[in-house]
Amino acid sequence: MRLNGIPAEPGSPKGPSQADLAVNDDDLGAIGHDAYELRTRLSKDGDHARPTTFDAAIALTNGNFESGSGLLKVHDRWQTHLKTLLDACAQISNHLDYSKASHHKDDVQIVGDLLSVSKLNEYLK
Length: 125
Hints:
The chain has helices spanning 25-45, 50-62, 67-124. It is mainly α.
């Protein structure tokens, strides 16, 4: 399997085919927006039981119930996983915002470079 290119079309020389990577800004924006909304909801909905769970774990531990320490471990593990998921959503959203801006900047530079070449061609005619 080749990841950095695409196979040549049947019957053509070993050169690249006409296919190319195309990224639509609307697609990037929609995915980034979904990641942002997911992070926003997770930060609220994923944390609503934290104080109650912690209080229950402390009460059970203070009442000499062994399940108190187990519940505290569940509480801590949940917080760790929630933070990891929140960070991942933020990275996706931020990366797509960066990619969108970077692609736009590259497009502007390419257009500028092509205009310069076309002006030179006009003078050489």
